[in-house]
Amino acid sequence: MLLGCIADDFTGGTDLASALVAQGIRTVQVIGVPETGEEVVRSGAEAVVVALKTRTAPVADAVEQSLTALRWLREIGCERYYFKYCSTFDSTPAGNIGPVADALVDALGMDFTVICPALPANGRTVRDGRLFVDDAPLDETSMRQHPLTPMDDANVVRLMRRQTGSRVGLVGHGTVAQGPERIRAEFGALRSAGIRFAVVDAIDDHDLLAIGRACADLPLVTASSGLAIGLAETPRARPPHGLTDGDPHTPVPFGGARAVIAGSCSAATNAQVEAARPVYPTFPVDPCAVVRGEDVVTAALRWARPLLADGPVLLHATQPARNVMAAKSRLPDDTASRIEDTLASIARGLVDMGVGRLIVAGGETSGAVVAALGVTGLVIGPEISPGVPWTWTLGTPWPLALALKSGNFGSRDFFLDAWERLP
Ligand SMILES: Nc1ncnc2c1ncn2[C@@H]1O[C@H](COP(=O)(O)OP(=O)(O)O)[C@@H](O)[C@H]1O
Ligand SMILES: O=C(O)[C@@H](O)C(=O)COP(=O)(O)O
Hints:
Blueprint: E1 2-7, H1 10-22, E2 27-31, H2 38-42, E3 47-51, H3 59-75, E4 78-84, H4 97-107, E5 113-116, E6 124-127, E7 130-133, E8 136-137, H5 156-163, E9 168-171, H6 173-176, H7 180-192, E10 197-200, H8 205-214, E11 220-223, E12 257-262, H9 267-276, E13 282-284, H10 287-291, H11 296-304, E14 313-316, H12 321-327, H13 335-352, E15 355-361, H14 363-373, E16 377-385, E17 388-394, E18 401-405, H15 414-417
Parallel strand pairs: 1-3, 1-4, 2-3, 4-11, 5-10, 5-11, 9-10, 12-14, 12-15, 13-14, 15-18
Antiparallel strand pairs: 2-16, 6-7, 7-8, 16-17, 17-18
């Protein structure tokens, strides 16, 4: 059975695709909705991830794009669906998780599904409906100061209730710990009581396996990538592989110069920039210069050109989240998207100058960069750290090695060590 996945951003897409590949599921990731499904069907994929950039889009736009993706996935023969959002439930005050989940449930003629953001591999757990990052409630982490999706509440039930008129319930850990049959019975009880969305507690992968089994009859689940471990009917012992492994068309990245572009202001990316700054030549992209309309792209590329032959370069707009919040009232509303455009143009210029191995930090930033590079699909390669694989690009004149890193993923030395995972 073909599993059709809709991811609300591009780093989230590679996170999910990598988790599915690790389950032995042949997975392909496409960027946006392709014109035709022929190539995907021919590839023999068992799962398809459609990566959208809908997390911070206006609600109606996010809903429409997600429904278009669902229609396409149905056309190519999918029978089960997975709406992937962030393990820190990143959303704007108006949505988009609730409205998109409602629209997908309606379109599939369902009346019930799960809300399961837990991702224990990266420290995200849900206890009594509250989302924790390691031991801190979500609203006490740097996510409170996120430039686009500040999270001021850790209670996922409440967050969902803000975003949907549908009824939201909770399956607590006491139930989850009793295993799939008990969870399924609780789903039945909630459903009979008119609950449409059940937020499900999960503390570890054992819980996610049980929840995955309990979801076996649901045509749609909504979750972070965590639930992927519970979805393989029988987890296979195959070694992890990408879509085209063993296929004569497997793209081979040509190598080329190395660069890191960081547009995330999340805590992990700040630490990674700090660790790389003493080691790599570094170009800070100044948000004030961007909003003043200075030609930051030309300046950055002129700076990078003579350095590329000697090793990786780092270009970042990254600043501590508290500084970004403090500057917010002085900068125009479209600052974040102008920075994304700037970083995307820099990425494009770097690739034209011979960069063939590129790390991009930040989900929205990755969306902008991937669009500027004309990438149509990604072949999933080796995992660098949980949720971040190397990928090979499809649709570019030659395959690039691209790592799309979620803002808060990866260890402090990620930018320094990631290259070692490349074949
Ligand atoms: N110094 C800054 N000031 C304001 N916004 C910024 C700054 N640096 C980056 N941004 C914007 O913040 C957003 C970060 O989002 P994203 O790339 O998704 O990172 P993350 O994965 O951490 O959520 C992007 O829109 C980016 O352009
Ligand atoms: O689920 C997750 O945490 C990630 O897959 C993800 O979506 C992170 O988003 P960004 O931090 O915006 O990259």
